[in-house]
Amino acid sequence: MTITGGKKKEKIDRLSELAAREDERGVSLWKEAFRRLRRNPAAIVGAVILSLFLLVALLGPFFVPHPPDAQLWKGEIRLGDFPGFRSENWFGVDHIGRDEFSRMIVGARQTLLVGVVSTLIGLAVGSLIGGVAGAAAGLGGRWGRAVDNVLMRFVDMLLAMPSLLLAISIAALLGAGLTTVMIAVGVVSVPVFARLLRGSMISQANSDYVLAAVSLGVKKPKIALTHVVPNSLAPVIVQATLTLATAIIEAAALSFLGLGNNDASIPEWGVMLADAQQYLDSAPRLAILPALAIIVTALGFTLLGEAMREALDPKLRK
Amino acid sequence: MALLDVEDLSVTFARRGQRTVHAVDGVSFSVDAGEVVGLVGESGCGKSVTSLAIMGLLPKQPGLRVGGKAVFDGTDLLQLDDRSRRDIRGRDVAMIFQDPLSSLNPVIPIGLQVTEVLTRHRGMKGAAAEKEAAELLDRVGIPDPKRRLKEYPHQLSGGMRQRALIAMAVACQPRLLIADEPTTALDVTIQAQILELLKELVRDSGTALVMITHDLGVVAGMCDTVNVLYGGRVVETARRRPLFREPRHPYTVGLLASVPRLDAGRGERLNPIPGSVRDLLPWADGCAFAPRCARRVDECVGEPPALVLAHDGRSYRCVNPAPLPGTLPPPAAAGAAPAAEAPAGTAKAAEATAGPVPAPREEEKP
Amino acid sequence: MFRFIVRRLLQLIPTLFGLSLLLFIWLRRLPGGPETAILGERGTPEMRAAIRRNMGLDEPILVQYGRFVRRLIRLDLGTSTSTKRTVVTEFVERFPGTVELSISAMLIAIGLGIPLGYLAARRRGRMLDHLSVGGSLIGICIPVFFLAYVLKAIFAENLGWFPASGRQDPTLGATRITNFFVLDGIMTREWDAAADALWHLVLPAVALASIPLAIIVRITRASVLEVLNEDFVRTAEAKGLTESTVRRRHVLRNSMLPVVTSIGLLTGGLLSGAVLTETVFAFSGIGAFIYEAISQRDYPVLMGFILIIAVVYVLVNLLVDLSYSLIDPRVRVR
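^ inputs. structure came back:
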């Protein structure tokens, strides 16, 4: 009987190897999060919806059957009676004789544009304010705290106004239009991003691993770039995804209030929905189609955003 | 007959798409009335899950399976329905948890958290319950108990919180108390006080105590009998003194050797057990400790090692146990692997030898 | 407690000051300036100049702001250019309607949302859970005004179960005391008037409740799930308490903490939503009036209302913080 005999020994060795590899695994936060994301059916549904939406928004306008702003079937419009679903016009004809299907397709691009641009505005301005405030607070000192204070009081002020009213005041200032909607909706999300980034930066800065990096003599800018910013970014990205959903809904609300895109030649779901309210009785599809499109798209962003939040939440990770 | 007889207790978590986890894999031990029994092991060895399974407190989740028996005073706790289990919990069997702050409800006063046990199991209400609660707090050494009743957990110090938790646990004078790492979250000086308090309570009321800990110091100070757990199974059971004097299972030997000693000479190295709890061999394939074991031999792998019953009620689960002091250590084989060393320095654990050590007075468990 | 309130109220001052400054600049910078708002696009340059002089618009901006703040302190927010009545009068008249609507919506949201969220958490992964989670997701994603229109089309216009617009049937000739129509009806014992006012509230309140309801369901569910895993719930179970005691005393109470916080934040959303719902249901409140003010370019009304709403919003959040301290002793204020 020898000490180490054949197979059994190998078995043990293989087991310890396995254990060792498991230690190396699961280091990367993002990889792990992505793996969890792929397992979540809500994320899959959201991603599918969004891919379809993107596909339609980016490529659709090149393949529309009719120009979206031509009143080709004007002659068929009777009071309270518009041609409905038919082979010529898949989604029927709208209240002034335009092809609804083409308008929906082209509208997707506008809706995407409004959502993305306004979110980017909010993200950029909000992250700037929040980032500066967070950095100032992290730097400390009288000036750091003062800068942080002033910036955050400004953010509080924006927060003290209900979002739609804030958007309304901005829209009233700038006059109705697509740019207005994007700016107004973007500004509304500024305080959210600012508070979020500042909050997570401060909590990151106070975390033990940053303390550890400081005590090891890593330089401050390097800590900020390698530790604080990447770790603060996750909630910001999640929030951006969720904001895309609210931006689309809020843009629709502004359109409803008559502050939206006033250029009739460029269809946009929010405006289409707002315009169609009068015909809810005679041609409900004119309202239901853009409404469904808005709801499904917003749902896609929300599902994906929530799933990302879950995937990145360290508390839920096991 | 023992007060609590745990037989072949197993807890498995089956998860879709993942390997089934055997958190507890056939644990057996028993507790006599008034006895202090320790469950010792590294974190992850299944000691907490064992206690939660006995109490029926494992979080309900799909894929959870509890097998075996936990017979308390003639009734199998695992077979009880929810209502009768609730009747026993807190009245006959009580539990103390590790982290006193998170184990107390932060938004209701201490007083109510004590009186609710009295109301539930002893039918006390109003002023009577409050008086009894104050007496309980007084008994566990909380000064000015009347005022404390109205306070909230965050207003108490860590030691006070653990005392309050103990007061809740002993409110109905249970016959069995399970303490899951009751001192881990506390300062060392407070730890000693709490252990002293537990000892006192157990002695005065004849309550049996199951002490779950990874701290061998706690075991040395409190327990009558010690069960060492590894990989969800009891690997060695012994009375306290024999265990410390002559550990047989290599894991016990390693545990004792990894305790830093005050009387160790400067520069003397600690003797940690190599590897981690995760380097586990499933019990079905042999000894779970084998991948980390310094006394590993061929027989360790293949089938689970049987429980060896030795004299005076001790038992261990090993085919190549550390030799008893006094008996001649078998000739050490060549090899430079770190030798497991018993604390007293008596049992010079040899390298894995060419064959199992003959154990004359030991017999296989039927 | 008292000192906490005072401190919070004092903290309000810089916010309000900044807000007024912002709004003031905003008002001056409007396209065409305030004179356009009064004259419309037609006025001659001479008329514009006259109005500018009259309103003191030719003076330095700081002087103008000083005057503006002085008037603000006297609660003089100017006159509506469309109704020619003072902004404060308009507000006092219309605010009760919005309050009634918001409170009804909040009651619906809380009354349905907390039980639904709780049940969803208890039955995690089952049908009810999936339904509430899915429903709340959709609730968040439906544009409020669209929902309002759909409700109105189905339940008012087609089925005729509820009135389609207004706050009360004017033919009832109900007595007005506080402008809270339901309250007025109860105070004057005109029960039919109170019932009618309530009846008018149902559809707009349901539409307005959609988003807060969805959010409360989600927060309650998440919070209950978290609390169920807390150590103190295990302690409570270890004490052998009955299931209902554990739920009521230990689970529910602790899981209400984030819900209460969210209720304060949701108030802002309610005031936003009120603009949309009130417009759809021609419900005479501040929301509908703001919509009119936008289309009429009635800037004094817009600015005054926004300022007052900001104050109300901050006060509501103060109230919420105070009630929070009642259920969570850890933040109890000295």
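Residues 100-139 of chain A form the longest helix (40 residues). Chain A is about 70% helix and 0% strand.
thumbs up if we can close this ticket
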